[in-house]
Amino acid sequence: MDLPKNFSRPKLTFDYGVTVPSLIFIIGTCLLSVIFPTMVNSLLTDVKNFIFVDLNWIYVWCVTIFVVFLVFLLFSKYGKIKLGPNESTPEYSFFSWISMLFAAGMGIGLMYFSVAEPMQHYSTDAFSQSHIISRAKNAQLYTFFHWGIHAWAIYGLVGLCLAYFTYRYRLPLSLRSCLYPLLKERVNGKWGDVIDIFALCSTFFGITTTLGFGVVQINSGLETLNILPGTGAIYQFMIVAVLVSIAVFSATSGVDKGVRILSNINVVAVVVLLAIILILGPTVYLIGSFTYGLGNYINNFFDLTFNTHVYEEKTLPWFYNWTILYWAWWISWSPFVGLFIAKISKGRTIREFIAAVLIIPTLFNFLWMSVLGNSAIWIDLNVANGALGNLVSDPDALMFRFLEYLPFSDILSVAVVCIIMIFFVTSADSGILVMDSISTKNSSRSPKVQMLFWGILLAALALMLLNAGGLQALQTMTLITALPFAIIMVLFVVSLMKALVIDHAYYEKGLSVSTVPWSGEFWRQRLKTIVSFKTEESVKKFIDEEALAAFNDLRDELEANGIIAEVHYIEDSKRVYLEIRHDIVNDFIYGVKCEKRIVSEYMVDDKNLPDLESNVTYFPKTYFGDSREGYDVQYFTKNELISDVLKHYDRFLKIIADRSNEMFVSNDNGPQVK
């Protein structure tokens, strides 16, 4: 069959050094889990138990370090640093940004565990000796603990490191970039490939297992609603085929369209469902329990953080199977969620990023878990006579059994199934985007066939594992891989702190002590300049006559001293700049451009203020090659402009001479503004 003349094969953008080893490991592990599910699960469970029992303190300390570090940055002087150049602005509205990171970060799990987890804590034998009221309080407290600040600190740390090194240092959106201050150029070699392979495998395993559990819950809901007659393999195949197709379409539409729109719809739907259950349920009880639970969480925050239950032997198995499992689960998901959060966070300040990521999703999780979880506990105590507590071993159906005790249960069940489906799609489409980003080293030209490939692979392996009983083994493998990545994340903390210290010192460094203040020699000329507002034409004249002449004189003198310099005059954009090129470090750039300024209306009408025909005026503003904010130089004479350039060049030479600044001034990484 002949192909059309205008047909061109899509050019794949995979980095095969990362993609091929990852696919071998992913497919090999899944096949082993399918062919030998019992043996593989038994072996991996033994490894997991050793880690959770004997090395659980590593998780406790690592997660504590992440929380403390982010809180420190939130209130530190580094909080004002932007995730990108100093003049960058956010790409997405605050609502869309929060919606996307929330949908990616919690997704199906929020629906799956909202009733199941509080009920399981409430019913567990670990707290059976406690009074029934204490059990209800503990159920809420530990649910808050597992879904609160600690979980989002794990996601936030990875997202912050990725966003900072990607948009501030202009490194690839890759986990290897987070270790650049420690490994330098070695991140581009085998060490970097190993980190990306780990991230790709961890992301794939985490999404696959979550989607597998999501399919089961969707199937259970559709069966409850009598839409599907059973929960067999054929029905799960139909669900996955439809939802993954939508996810692939959403991913190929890009973040700006498919992912953002679905995330916004999802958050609105969740808020509406939350409000309805709050109204239909025991409203006063729920509001009071949320208020108490929030205070209880704050009061017990440090005790929860450091409690290893070493003195409470009866609760140790519960501690391993819940708290440690959750820390491992969040860590294993952090490459995926962190990459996605970073992808949508350019232009935010570090303080804004941390505050939003730690506080807003946490508060919503608390409200969500309180309304659904406490409603279920209240119904179990006062209406169902323990019927819901007897279903804790069947979390797939527990949500829908709970809804049967509320008015309009069928409508609510339909809404829940729809929300789970949207969560399924948003988790899958953002996962597809992230996996393609990792496997291509953040290529922006990936063909749609690559998105289709990841979608089909996700669907095929999730279904295969689900029906062969290998999903549990894959989940266990995911939890095991969290231990080494927790150590890598501690290195992220060291790496980011090192970079921030250098970054802050770089931008806060003052001018050279050779700075010469104005003299009174040209005071009449300066007064005339001060009391007159410049037009666009007069600024262009200043650039043509003063700045261009100053730069040409300075270039000639530099060349006389053996330094090659170039003067670039760009008439259309009304700017001129002096450039001194370097092979290894960033080029030195000092430019002057025409900038518009809007002044207050009252200045136009005030007779005792300088004449001004409109509230728009112009001035010549400096700019540099490192994103520092420029300033007004309209009062400078030619010689003073030359002197100012020399002060900045003196500063530049002192910075690049400092060995600690090697990372920041590398020619491959530093911003160049021309």
What does this structure look like?
This protein has 674 residues and is mainly alpha-helical. The protein folds into 2 domains: 16-501, Amino acid/polyamine transporter I (Up-down Bundle), CATH 1.20.1740; 523-661, no CATH class. The chain has helices spanning 16-35, 37-54, 56-75, 94-105, 108-123, 132-147, 149-167, 180-183, 190-224, 233-253, 255-280, 283-299, 301-306, 316-343, 350-382, 395-403, 409-439, 448-468, 471-508, 523-530, 536-560, 602-605, 638-657, and strands at 566-570, 575-580, 588-598, 616-624. Helix 14 (316-343) crosses helix 17. The radius of gyration is 30 Å and the shape is elongated. It holds the Pfam family BCCT. This is Transporter.
CATH architecture of the largest domain: Up-down Bundle
| Average pLDDT | 82
Order of helices and strands: HHHHHHHHHHHHHHHHHHHHHEEEHEH
The helix/strand class is mainly alpha
Radius of gyration equals 30 Å
* Range of helix content: 55-70%
CATH class category label of the largest domain = Mainly Alpha
Number of domains: 2
Q: How far apart lie the N and C ends? A: 52 Å
Proportion of beta-strand residues: under 5%
Number of strands: 4
What strand line-up does the widest sheet have? Answer: 1-2-3-4
Shape summary: elongated
Uncertain spans:
512-517, 669-673
Protein name: Transporter
Transmembrane segments: 12-36, 56-75, 95-115, 144-167, 194-213, 233-255, 267-287, 324-342, 354-379, 411-432, 452-473, 479-501
Membrane topology: Multi-pass membrane protein
GO molecular function, one term: transmembrane transporter activity
